[in-house]
Amino acid sequence: MAVWTHRLWRGLKWGLSTLALASFSFVAIAFLSAAFPATGRAQSHIALPAIHLCTGMAHTDFAIPLELARSESFGPVTKYIPDNLSDEIYVMMGWGDHRFFTEVPTLSELRPGIALGALTGQHDTALRLQLISKTYMPEYCRAVPLDRQGQDAIALHIRETIAEPQTLLSESTIGLNYLKANQRYGVFHTCNDWTSDALRKAGLPTARWNAPFAFSVTWPLRSVAAD
Hints:
Layout: H1 2-35, E1 52-55, E2 60-65, H2 66-69, E3 89-97, H3 98-103, H4 112-119, E4 125-133, E5 141-143, H5 148-161, E6 176-180, H6 191-202, H7 214-218
Antiparallel strand pairs: 1-2, 1-5, 2-3, 3-4, 4-6
């Protein structure tokens, strides 16, 4: 019995050590990836009004000016934007795990089952569309300097995210819609990886290898982000 107990304890220690090493390596690569980013291209004739990048503790979104969000560039998104809105309104757009969006409003409400399901790609993903007033943006949103080509690249990235046929997922309300999305969420493809991919396509500096965290998106932009 003592032999089996010893083997079990040794296996447990090996497993925990491996998990700790893998976690440390994952975070270390994320830090290095953001600290030594891939460079973008020179943006010419910065387009206005600007797209903003909004950053929370763990998630990033784009805030799209109303006139741009309603343009042909954003295609199917436009029909989910109500009429008669003030020009001060922006449309926040971000991709992620649908259950995270709807069941985990704060990290304190995160449950192991939801986290494990998300990180292993078990849930639907969604493109979240949320109206936000410009007056609430300065605290956590910053304009990013994009020319028209860069803005079009982000619009295309968002369009390609929407699944066909277009489907509104549960919890959608006026001013807050969840569109069924392509791609699976996972430990190597998070909401911030999605944002980083869009910025890379737009020609801005991005994390070199992966971008699992919010800082993975914002750090590479420090040299170019506009006020």
